[in-house]
Write a structure and sequence with these properties.
2 domains; five-stranded mixed β-sheet; eight-stranded mixed β-sheet; 30% helix; binds 6-O-phosphono-alpha-D-fructofuranose; 338 residues; D-Maltodextrin-Binding Protein, domain 2
Length: 338
């Protein structure tokens, strides 16, 4: 007899949520729904391996054989392979790009192609796996620009503002998939007892102003004067007599998920070592920016919306200031003044 949580078993599954969205869109073909179901399957498969990584002796190892004598691959390579194999045969995509692959990932000739482009970081923050810190999968979906059977790099190099959908899966104390397709931001928690994602965070709205800042202050010596002044300003007690609180996990999905739910600001500024910042535009900053804006927040590269940046290469980096609209605006203001 199933004795899992009653609330989720009576809830709305991710599949139903996507289908209901499809029904509300005139002319929808079910392509997006099919693609999203494949992404959700990949998330479940990755989740299963991430949860068992410690037991199977595959924490951060590569090329070794584990206790079962299996060929061990790094978790992020595993996640990459799972994502590619889960979506490549569905006929919904014309091309893919991944943090793990230098070039584009074409759809094998034996499969049909479709109108969407999928870009992803299969397992962001994977260096945190060995210390059991939250990690995540980030994805971005565009419509293709080119015609013909296969898509190409031109279909990937689109502004964030052109995204059809964006989302992430956070493998934390629970596994939550958060996505937007332009009609609000919604979170679904995986019920491991039934292997389904159930709606748990409907229409997430990010507070207009928060009291948490999240940045790696170990980089202070590399920052511009403007970034230093911005951070120092948040460490100075405000009108309420309190400064902001500092929270930094060092895993983008974890730091963003907290910022989305509690407000405040996360930043990875440009610095002398990373003049374009550290985070990747196409499959990290742009999808998070779509989510932040869809939840009423903001995402800037320091002086303009991340979603306006026109990509010139697959793995290009971009500075990122993301979170509550007032906090991001304050960062832009201070950076302008110096
Ligand atoms: P740092 C993880 O390695 C990552 O790519 C992001 O998930 C995270 O936000 C950032 O790098 C952390 O970088 O330099 O603070 O360790």
């Amino acid at each position: 007899m199933y004795t899992g949580p009653t609330s989720t078993t009576q809830g709305i599954t991710l599949e139903r949520h996507i289908l209901e969205r499809q029904l509300s869109i005139p002319g929808a073909t079910g392509d997006f729904t099919g693609l999203f179901q494949q992404i959700a399957l990949a998330a479940k498969l990755i989740n299963s391996r991430v949860r068992s990584a410690g037991l199977a002796g595959v924490l951060g190892l590569t090329g070794d054989t584990n206790v079962q004598g299996e060929e061990v691959t790094k978790l992020d390579i595993f996640a990459n392979n799972v994502l590619v194999r889960s979506v490549e045969a569905g006929g919904h995509l014309c091309v893919m790009a991944s943090e793990e692959n230098e070039g584009i990932i074409p759809i094998p000739d034996r499969f049909a192609t479709g109108k969407y482009v999928l870009m992803f970081d299969p397992l962001d923050g994977s260096s945190n796996i060995d210390v059991d810190i939250n990690i995540g999968t980030i994805f971005s979906i565009h419509r293709r620009l080119t015609t013909g059977r296969h898509g190409g790099e031109a279909d990937c190099l689109q502004r964030g503002a052109s995204q059809v959908a964006a989302g992430y899966v956070i493998y934390g104390s629970s596994t939550v998939l958060v996505y937007t397709a332009g009609q609000g931001v919604h979170g679904f928690t995986l019920d491991p007892a039934v292997g389904e994602f159930f709606l748990s965070h409907e229409n997430i709205r990010i507070p207009t102003k928060g009291k948490i800042y999240s940045v790696n202050e170990g980089n202070t010596y590399l920052w511009s004067e403007g970034v230093r002044r911005w951070v120092e300003g948040m460490k100075t007690p405000g009108p309420d007599g309190k400064p902001y609180s500092a929270r930094y996990v060092g895993s983008l999905v974890a730091d963003f998920h907290r910022t989305l739910l509690k407000g405040g600001v996360f930043a990875y500024p440009a610095d002398q070592k990373n003049p374009q910042g550290k985070l990747r535009l196409l499959y990290e900053a742009a999808p998070m920016a779509m989510l932040a804006e869809a939840a009423g927040g903001a995402a800037s590269e320091g002086s303009r919306r991340v979603m306006e940046v026109v990509p010139t290469s697959l793995h290009q980096r971009v500075p990122l200031y993301i979170g509550s609209s007032e906090d991001v605006a304050a960062a832009e203001r201070l950076l302008r003044e110096t």
